[in-house]
Amino acid sequence: MSILNERAHTIAHVLIEALPYIRRFRGKTIVIKYGGNAMVDETLKQGFARDVVLMKMVGVNPVIVHGGGPQIGSLLKRLGKASEFVQGMRVTDDETMDVVEMVLGGLVNKEIVNFINRHGGSAVGLTGKDGDLIRARKLLLRRDAPELEATEIIDIGHVGEVESIDAAVVHMLVEGDFIPVIAPIGVGEDGRSYNINADLVAGKIAEVLKAEKLLLLTNTTGLLDAEGNLITELDVGRVHALIKDGVIAGGMLPKVQCALDAVHGGVKSAHIIDGRVEHAVMLDLFTDEGVGTLIRSR
Ligand SMILES: Nc1ncnc2c1ncn2[C@@H]1O[C@H](COP(=O)(O)OP(=O)(O)O)[C@@H](O)[C@H]1O
Ligand SMILES: CC(=O)N[C@@H](CCC(=O)OP(=O)(O)O)C(=O)O
């Protein structure tokens, strides 16, 4: 076979391999959590934008929820403010909340929108304030304090949890063939802004939209065990032990929690994948190559 024929053969093979997946996902909603750690360079960002546009073009409805933790961290650093996390959540005082809103609702959100639109899609950026999409309440963390034989409540400022989602604006955009790009900022009953972990927002949105799949793009090959090996499918019964032993920690805590909540809430499956791999979204959805950690209800 000539080199040209060989190339044509490979292209045909790849397209044919995608066919059953396109048929399966056509008309369905896929919620993609695009973590700040997966937005590391231009090539990856362009690859992500192309994948999302291709999904839309073949009839799948992507809804993006993005993070931006490292991007918030770097602006805080430039402003001389330290980043502090408790149980994977950023301690958010008044000044930090302003920075979070600027970075997530402004810089990061508009960059993703712009990338998608430059690659032929029609993306629209929103925060949870637009259309009253994400109603939030203050998140109070709990920590067992054996020395006091009690549970300690920790207040970490303007950090919220999702109280409710009004997805009307998202439905409207999807029906109009737009790609919604959502920043994880919620609004309280009193009109205050809340900084919400992006994984938690993605999980709830996936639930409310009855998504076919929740894809969580991060900076590891997936969930790793104590030896650093990839856990390809998460056994729900194992989760508590993994948390108790400190194997699931930091930013992986809300990720695993939201994936479990989403599948219990009706999302068919959740997948934690490596966003540092070029075209991670396309590989996961349209080929047999999907890797990472799969979480599904039993
Ligand atoms: N068991 C685990 N497996 C993989 N990553 C873990 C685990 N426990 C903690 N982590 C940490 O969680 C991080 C991913 O969470 P996070 O930094 O919040 O990413 P993102 O910005 O993509 O949401 C990993 O880079 C890793 O440092
Ligand atoms: C409360 C809380 O921690 N909010 C996160 C929101 C951004 C986020 O979740 O970004 P990644 O997905 O990139 O980590 C933060 O301030 O970093």
Automatic annotation (TrEMBL):
Binding site for substrate: G68, G69, R90, N195
Gene Ontology molecular function: acetylglutamate kinase activity; ATP binding
GO cellular component: cytoplasm
Broadest EC class assigned to this enzyme: transferase
Pathway: Amino-acid biosynthesis; L-arginine biosynthesis; N(2)-acetyl-L-ornithine from L-glutamate: step 2/4
Subcellular location(s) of the protein: Cytoplasm
Residue ranges constituting the Aspartate/glutamate/uridylate kinase domain according to the UniProt record: 28-274
Coiled-coil positions: none
GO terms under biological process: L-arginine biosynthetic process via ornithine
UniProt EC number: 2.7.2.8
Catalytic activity: N-acetyl-L-glutamate + ATP = N-acetyl-L-glutamyl 5-phosphate + ADP
Residue(s) at site: Transition state stabilizer: K33, K255
Keywords for the protein's UniProt record, in alphabetical order: Amino-acid biosynthesis, Arginine biosynthesis, ATP-binding, Cytoplasm, Kinase, Nucleotide-binding, Transferase
Biological role stated in the UniProt entry: Catalyzes the ATP-dependent phosphorylation of N-acetyl-L-glutamate.
PANTHER family the UniProt entry points to: N-ACETYLGLUTAMATE SYNTHASE, N-ACETYLGLUTAMATE SYNTHASE, MITOCHONDRIAL
Family: Belongs to the acetylglutamate kinase family. ArgB subfamily.
Record protein name field: Acetylglutamate kinase
Organism (species): Thiocapsa roseopersicina
Designated gene of the protein: argB
